[in-house]
Amino acid sequence: MAQRQFKIISDSSCDMPKAYYEEHDVDIVKLGFFLNGETYSGEDGPEMEEKEFYTILRGGAMPTTYQAPAEVSRAHAEKYLEAGQDVLILGFSSGLSGTCSGMIVAARELAAKYPERKIMVVDSLSASMGEGLLLDYIVKKADSGASLQETYEYAESLKLNICHMFTVDNLFHLKRGGRVSAATAVVGTLLNIKPVLHVDDEGHLINIDKAVGRKKSIRTLVEYMDKVQILGKDDPIFISHGDCEEDANYLKSLVLEKYGADRRIEINCIGPVIGSHSGPGTLALFFIGSKR
User: Fold this and answer.
1) Which whole number is the average pLDDT over 197-206?
2) Which CATH class is domain 7-159?
3) Spans of all domains in the chain
4) Which one, 45, 78, 171, 286, has the greatest CB density within 10 A?
5) C-alpha angle with apex 227: 223 to 232, nearest 5 degrees?
6) Is residue 53 helix, strand or coil?
7) What is the pLDDT of residues 80-90, one digit of tens each?
8) Using CA atoms in the order 21, 23, 233, 208, what is the torsion angle rounded to 10 degrees?
9) Does domain 161-288 have CATH number 3.30.1180.10?
10) Which helix (H) or strand (E) is 186 found in, with range?
């Protein structure tokens, strides 16, 4: 493995296992949430285990989230610039959060303060382990010896090939976020209709289909994947879930059946920041495709 030439920073909305960040030397800017009058995560709030978080949500609690402000992203990046390192930042989709805009503001200020250093920001236009999948490709590129500029250009050329397919078990969390109407949520719940959604080229959540029943909605994710995937033998597939590990493993079995038992598949729980908007029972599939 070649020596990495710069520091990589991302944010906690990419929903990768904490051990991944440590193993691959990625610094993480933390987003946070408010729940029952308390502040969690962020830079200095207490962490909440996913299991506890989703149990509280199933009990009817309604958390709200907050983005990472520009000054927090600035503090993360500046310590590396001060130490003589260049920096690449990968941010949560600007179509869903202002976090990446804050990162861009911070980078502009730091570029003026440290003209001898380079700092570049990639708007992932991705969420959850879709952002995590793009991060994984970036890490591999950087570890191959690519320069900051080469890695930045690689990320920009690849990001709209990072496909997100997902379904939710409960329409009311999408209603609260304005993704479906109240009438759709009520009727859909009564008829056991499960929406199928993706993230578009502007980084927004878009409803593209619906299925009757949970198992059918999970199979539909793989059907959409079949239409656009351009997987090479070494391309991984990521699955994230809102405390529904059994469904995640069922989805994994469908994917392995199609794309080979030796395929690298990563499964991880959706963190509280994304989970506040998607709710318990969300199941998502991420892979490289010809288009989103």
Assistant:
1) 94
2) alpha beta
3) 7-159, 161-288
4) 286
5) 105
6) helix
7) 999 999 999 99
8) -10
9) yes
10) helix 182-190
